Amino acid sequence: MKNILSASLLAAGLALAGAVQAAPVTLLNVSYDVMRDFYKDYNAAFQKHWDAEHPNDKLTLQMSFGGSSKQARSVIDGLPADVITMNMATDINALADNGKLVPDNWVTRLPNNSAPFTSATVFIVRKGNPKALKDWPDLLKDGVQVIVPNPKTSGNGRYTYLSAWGYVLKNGGDEEKAKAFVGKLFKQAPVLDTGGRAATTTFMTNQIGDVLVTFENEAEMIAREFGRDQFEVIYPSVSAEAEPPVSVVDKVVEKKGTRAAAEDYLKYLWSPQGQEIAANNYLRPRDPNVLAKYTDRFPKVDFLSVEKTFGDWRTPRPRGGGARPRWRGAPPHIIPPPPRRGGPPPLPHWFGVESLFRGMTVITTSGLLSAGRCLYSLLPSSFACMRTP
b/e string for 295-304 if b means 16 or more Cβ within 10 A? Predict the structure, then answer.
């Protein structure tokens, strides 16, 4: 009788333990516009991987998409992202600088500076390329309308900015010529959408513009949705190498108890299957063995290294030498406000890559920093510019 009772208690204990293990896990991935198709495929694959490894733990994957910087702002404002998969490092740096949602060294926690794949900037032109647009200077021709997302809210727009700027530098121009070139480029834009997918809609569905500047993986998504006979893809001579980074949002996963699942979710991006899914969605995989299988879809590109050309994303650097600036509070994170008439303002005297954007807004611990003669305040939905003495 005693043995039967003990066995019953053991069985009850195991059942209770199983019930505890079976507690559902929900992960929210806050990502950027043009990654919808990739994460649709990736999430399905990871779900199978998780179910095989954790048969007693139910996992639910949720997604949020939008312009990269707009998404980062949403997380800062309280959107409970377990992981954030952004377009560029500035947007995850913002989480470190505003509320310490991630640690300052977040970029070192995963391989390849936490970027599991890369991409190139391409031009999408109308069938037959009627405006003969082949390289960056062609986009400045009179009458050419350029569709590109807003650099304020989209990493896609910022990579366009960097690629165009880098084209001038690589062809012997100086910063003044680059500033004028980029200013003229953005004057060619009849509208600035908040993200890459919205810009695609403007170009393909609404038939506005002569050229769409976007990433090569978005070009493939356009082909799948609209047909390959509706446009042509042009690779410009210079493209900044886009390295979209990922990170666990530490403060959120610690509160929800989802760190282990969130870390597994991101690490699987570097798995052979994760890299294959990237290649199938026209994202350049980091795994050289996987990349070698897809050379037909990834033309050789003269990539411009952002850090080698402009310096790292965060470290303020002097133009022409001199001492480093004295920042108040934490090192700044810079998000560009809406473009304004007359092109971009001059580069600040001190800059890291984060400062290379038109009318930059600098978010410090106080939320404000003078930028030229304007003081910009980052608000959830708008920017305010107040004249300073």
Answer: eeebeebebb
Supply 138's token pair.
Answer: 């062609």
- How far apart are alpha carbons 39 and 24 in whole angstroms? 21
Task: Please report the DSSP string for 127-175 in residue order.
Answer: TT-TT---SGGGGGSTT--EE---TTT-HHHHHHHHHHHHHHHHTT--H
pLDDT tens for the chain, 389 residues long, are: 545 545 555 555 545 554 445 579 999 999 988 899 999 999 999 999 999 999 999 999 999 998 888 899 999 999 999 999 998 898 899 999 999 999 999 999 999 999 999 999 999 999 999 999 999 999 999 999 999 999 888 888 989 999 999 999 999 999 999 999 999 999 999 999 988 889 999 999 999 999 999 999 888 889 989 998 999 999 999 998 999 999 999 999 999 999 999 999 999 999 999 999 999 999 999 999 999 999 999 998 888 887 777 766 565 544 443 333 332 222 233 334 334 444 433 333 223 444 444 343 322 222 222 222 222 222 222 222 222 22
For residue 343, the Cα-to-chain-centroid distance in whole angstroms is 24
Q: Give the Cα separation of 300 and 41 in Å (integer).
A: 26
Measure the CA–CA gap between 266 and 248, rounded to whole angstroms.
8
The values of phi and psi at residue 156, to 5°, are -55, -45
DSSP 185-209: HHHT-S---SSHHHHHIIIIIS---
Residue showing tokens 């896990």: 25
Angle between helix 89-97 and helix 155-170 axes, rounded to 10 deg: 120
Angle at 222 between CA 220 and CA 227, to 5 degrees: 100
- Tokens 């070192």, residue located: 108
Taken in order 12, 17, 22, 26, is the CA torsion positive or negative?
Answer: positive
Regarding pTM above 0.70, the answer is yes
Domains plus CATH for the chain? 23-118+243-292 (3.40.190.10), 121-240 (3.40.190.10), 324-387 (no CATH)
